[in-house]
Amino acid sequence: MNIHRSRIGLASIAGLIIIIGFLTTSVTSYVVSTTSAKRAILTNELPLTSDNIYSEIQRDLLRPVFVSSLMATDTFLRDWVINGEEDEKQIRKYLSEIRKKYNAVSSFFVSEQSKTYYHPDGILKKISADDPRDTWYFRVAQMTDDYEINVDPDMANTDTMTIFINYKTYNYQGNYIGATGIGLTVKAVKALIQQYQEKFGRTVYFVDDNGQIVLHGPQYSGPTNLRDRSGLTKDYPNLLKKDQVIEFSSDGETILLSTRFIPELRWILVVEQSATDLLSEFRSTLQLNLAICAIVTLLVVFLHHQTVNFFHDKLANLALQDSLTGIGNRRALGLSFRQMTAQAKRHFEALSILLIDIDHFKQINDRYSHLVGDHVIKQTVKRIQGRLRGEDTLCRWGGEEFIVLLKGAKLQIAAQVAEEIRAAIADNQFVSNDTKIQITASVGVAEYLPSDSESTLVARVDQALYVAKEKGRNCIALEAAPGQEPTASPSPAKGK
């Protein structure tokens, strides 16, 4: 039982070592891989995506800024204002061509002198400082920058939310004469942002210098200010700086985020990517590695257990087996004795023992060699086995001595078996290298008593064997009854 537990313990330790090794390797690989992947996204992919989106913005969103800039410096527009805004058809035609050529939803000019709001379809209105919807113009007139981008309802287009580029216009002396520009519908710009997101596989939106989200795709559902974004409280001050890359957790999700200032729009471009999908691939790989680890560990532990059992059984057999004959040795006799005596006591069965000795075996070794002697021993074992049952036990006790445990046999039955063994040995010549050798054996017989130990039983059968030898060998002798000498069977005729 202790040996079995020891083997299980060794297998468990081996399995534990393999599991720890696999876990350490897999988890380390997972951490290194995810860290490297996130670093690659933050330092390379997101900034590169920002550059690509910036190029797209220059083509799609910044173009209206350039168009408005051209309008503000257009000689026709300035001359028309300087000449008193006399022909309304001319400005209408000009604004209509601008809108058509650049595919704008709106184009306009507001005169500082007349406070008239011109658009392609004619005069929209007279602006007034008292009208809340005209505050944008007076803000533009007072600002130090040349232009602004703002989102307002377009009165000329059924109050559709529109992104306006409001550009200040000056005469040739640098005096402010009005504001001009074009507009794009917010819906159209959101569609462009959605195209960016689908093309680059990342979330795209714009914030102003206060962190307010001013433009985003149609599917955006986050807060209106980055300050309110979960997980960004610590990094918020850095986000409004130029070209930042950060990693943060929001509602249990890992987010990789990059910012870039767009000077033409005066907004900050934000590109973000959820690392959940990325990490899920690595987690799947980790789970696969762990599954392989479990399978390999079970296989290795199983093979280890089988190997240990195989060699343990082999060593156990070697420890219990006589190397020359293949039968049990003294250690095996001890195990068999304990088992058979326990069963004899439990079931009240008889048990007898035979001690067999090859007569004058030393002379065989001296005359024919030890190799021949070994051959004689092996042949003797075969002849003994030929007279035994499957439940009987045969062990080699010494050099040329053998012990037989006869299960369920009383003394007289054991004596009959002993005589059969003696006769089988004596009636046949042994042949080795064409040499015929006649051998005999002496046998002692004793019956097991409940009070016997292995040593006392062997001592009694050894005494019987001694009597057989004293009587001239090639005979059997039974143990003596209490107070009497052991008795030997008559010696066979000479020549036997």
Task: Note down, in words, how this protein is organized.
The chain is α+β, with helices and mostly antiparallel strands and 496 residues long. Helix content is 48%, strand content 23%. It has 13 helices and 19 strands. The strands form four sheets. It has a six-stranded antiparallel β-sheet with strand order 3-2-1-6-5-4, with helices on both faces. A six-stranded mixed β-sheet has the order 13-14-12-17-18-19, with helices on both faces. Helix 10 crosses helix 11. It is rod-shaped, with a radius of gyration of 54 Å. The two termini are 51 Å apart. The mean pLDDT is 82.
Please mark out the parts with pLDDT under 50 across 5 or more consecutive residues, or reply none: none
Strand content: 15-25%
Total count of helical runs of at least 4 residues: 13
What sort of overall outline do the alpha carbons produce when their principal axes are compared?
rod-shaped
Helix content: 40-55%
Largest sheet report: 6 strands, antiparallel
